[in-house]
Amino acid sequence: MTKQVDPALLLIPSNTNSPKSTVKTLLTTEQLHHGVVQLGREINETYGDRPLTIIGVLTGSVVVLADLIRLLEMPLRVGVVQASSYRGTIRGDLVINSELMPDIRGRDVLLVDDIFDTGRTLVEVIAQMQALGPTSLRSAVLLRKKERQEVTMDPDFVVFDIPDEFVVGYGLDYNDAYRNLTYLATLEPDDLTDDFA
Ligand code: IMP
Ligand code: MG
User: Fold this and answer.
1) 88 lines ligand 1 (CB under 6 A)
2) Could you list the residue range(s) of the whole structural domain that residue 172 is in?
3) What is the number of structural domains in the chain?
4) What is the mean predicted confidence (pLDDT) over 14-31?
5) In this predicted model, what pLDDT tens digit does every residue of 65-85 receive, in sequence order?
């Protein structure tokens, strides 16, 4: 007889990585897990059996994307688009590369990003994707930083509202480090130096 495994349980990592002494946990591995499971439920309810194309914004969305897609039940295509604007904690020009994105014309599309901060990245990516003629285009973010938004749009799905602090882990980086933490952490000011290697 085959054993029934709750698919949600597959997402709990068996290790939680060793915390760097100066990182402070903002959301635990379990809290993130429960949040993503809830997001999966809402997306399943919203789309039902309709085929969906999910597009992750590289690089920060890779962890939430991997966890989320395994909870979705409709016929699913997965693609990525790259957007980058940060060096350390300093914002630079936004660069978007959509060469890796599948054809989205005539499809229901859900854009997934790690964090909605000023909102400029998502607004710009959405504008570029709308021009490609999807049937519908919604957005989901794992995190939304309180009172930081500089745009009028709001994502269709938001899992957690967090305070205005620089966060790392579960896909989010500081100078490309910390993405592999299974939990979400805030960095102490000492860690936010440009010579971080
Ligand atoms: P926005 O365009 O200001 O909304 O910024 C969105 C992008 O900035 C996210 O996709 C992240 O890659 C990055 N970002 C914003 N805040 C943080 C943070 O606290 N930690 C790590 N990355 C961040
Ligand atoms: Mg990002």
Assistant:
1) no
2) 3-191
3) 1
4) 74
5) 999 999 999 999 999 999 987
